[in-house]
Predict the 3D structure of the following.
Amino acid sequence: MSDFTRLLEAEIPRLRRYARALTRDAVYADDLVQSCLARALAKQHLWQPGTDLRAWLFTILHNQHCNELRRTMREGLSVELDQAPPVSAGSNAIAALELRDLERAINRLPEDQRTVVLLIGLEGMRYDRVATILNVPVGTVRSRVARGRAQLRRLMSAGPAVQAQPAFAPGLGPVTVRQCAA
């Protein structure tokens, strides 16, 4: 196994976590990670040893997701109602409900804010690294994360009536093509 393959393998859990948070659909997230890894292997000659492999992979994953959103917006997508996962209550219902409310609040954020909140909050990345991945200035990342956190605080304190999630296709949500171009 080559050094590149070992480094790539070490990043898979982070890629999966980010893809699941980004898409809100475990199956689509796994497909996205697989296509990201396949692309990374095919284009490994473009990666420069000594540079940040994680940032390079997250950029590939983010761009693949945006391309898929554009394709879906162009071609359309049909979803069967019976594909919704069953709802179950765990033994720690309060914590589960709080996590559900947080997930709904995160899903209500605009795509650009949700992306930076997830990369910084979930993945623990630095602002400059996120700016590189999204190809935006660091100041833009800072303003997006500040606005996203403020919106999350408002949504979490507003109660369940405000947090009702509109219907959307699994893994796609209400996203416009322009949001991914940023």
